[in-house]
């Protein structure tokens, strides 16, 4: 009984080969080869139909599952496409807002530029008006002399004109017979402030501008002008703005005097001095600073050579 069974196993029929290849895929496959061999043709056909039916049911079930998964994927894809569309819409809105913002920023920048230019023009006009007012006041004061440090009260007995007539011959003998004419002389301010211990200034209005210039030149040359032994100062009578601009040069003037550069202040507030045999003039400190920083190196080198030569070959 054993030998025929081996022979059947080695010489399997096509039906057995089909069933053996699909038995793992079928949930209810008959696993006993002996049972299959014992089946009649009708039973074998029924078993085959049963297996095919089960396979069809499994395939249908798998197809349903696959269809559901595909439907889920389709829905997910639709949601994703919808989300992408929304994102694109939002991105478009953001781009629109950005473009609008850029336009507004550009408009604001243009407006700021206009305001800046307008402000600069206004500032220039204000400066020009201030300069015109300053020039007007300086022109009104053009013939005036400004005398400082005359003691209070001396004019009560002698009068302002007599004080001035004492100052001229006492300090400038070459001008004593000139015959200067005075139009007006007064203290400034008119009323004495008891809270200010300093003497009020004296303003002398000359009949001729040329007379004022001669006196100022003589005062610069003498340097030490006095009234009854008291040091006084004689200067042009200028507007407050011009005086402030000239005061900004005082420290530099003192330094240049110490270096014998012969500094002078020209109207309204221009610094002039002699450098390397040439007259240099500057209207503001920045330009003077630039000149000081950009002096040719050869000038300093030449000056050192001149000093060395002077020491080597004394006269």
UniProtKB/TrEMBL annotation:
Coiled coil segments of this chain: 42-132
Region (Disordered), start-end ranges: 1-32, 284-315
GO CC annotation, single: ribonucleoprotein complex
Biased composition (Polar residues): 7-20
Residue intervals of the L1 transposable element RRM domain: 142-236
GO-annotated molecular function: single-stranded RNA binding
Cited InterPro entries: L1_C, L1_dsRBD, L1_RRM_dom, L1_trimer, Transposase_22
Domain L1 transposable element dsRBD-like: 241-297
The keyword Membrane is annotated on this UniProt entry: no
SUPFAM superfamilies (UniProt xref): Tropomyosin
Alphabetic keyword roster: Coiled coil
GO biological process: retrotransposition
Residues of the L1 transposable element trimerization domain: 99-138
Cell cycle recorded as keyword: no
Family annotation (Pfam families): Tnp_22_dsRBD (PF17490), Tnp_22_trimer (PF17489), Transposase_22 (PF02994)
Similarity annotation: Belongs to the transposase 22 family.
PANTHER family: L1 TRANSPOSABLE ELEMENT-RELATED
Protein name: L1 transposable element RRM domain-containing protein
Organism listed in the record: Sus scrofa (Pig)
Organism ancestry: Eukaryota, Metazoa, Chordata, Craniata, Vertebrata
